[in-house]
Amino acid sequence: MSATRVCALSDLEQDTALRVEVDGVAIAVVLDASGEVHAIGDTCTHGDISLAEGFVDGDTLECWAHGSAFSLRTGKPLNLPAYEPVPVFEVTIDGDDVLIDPNVKKDI
């Protein structure tokens, strides 16, 4: 499968997560303060909570329910109660299109 357009780059608000779904895979897409776009699994590994409803701080996305923060670069949790990472996906920008293939996880 190839990458799918999930949104326009202009649809993303800086330091705000956007939940998208590609082939049944929920993904949180984030435009960070430095202008880099990240895509991580949208479900907190501590609970069945959408990370896109959480808070972006630098290169982390914090779950609003229990406070676990996940690295946007590695998917690793940076504090408890979560201890399992979320997947991180490759992002391709083509003009104003943000493309993600949920079958291609980023090498960390």
TrEMBL record:
<feature type="domain" description="Rieske">
    <location>
        <begin position="4"/>
        <end position="100"/>
    </location>
</feature>
<keyword id="KW-0479">Metal-binding</keyword>
<dbReference type="Pfam" id="PF00355">
    <property type="entry name" value="Rieske"/>
</dbReference>
<dbReference type="InterPro" id="IPR017941">
    <property type="entry name" value="Rieske_2Fe-2S"/>
</dbReference>
<keyword id="KW-0408">Iron</keyword>
<dbReference type="InterPro" id="IPR036922">
    <property type="entry name" value="Rieske_2Fe-2S_sf"/>
</dbReference>
<protein>
    <submittedName>
        <fullName>Non-heme iron oxygenase ferredoxin subunit</fullName>
    </submittedName>
</protein>
<keyword id="KW-0001">2Fe-2S</keyword>
<keyword id="KW-0411">Iron-sulfur</keyword>
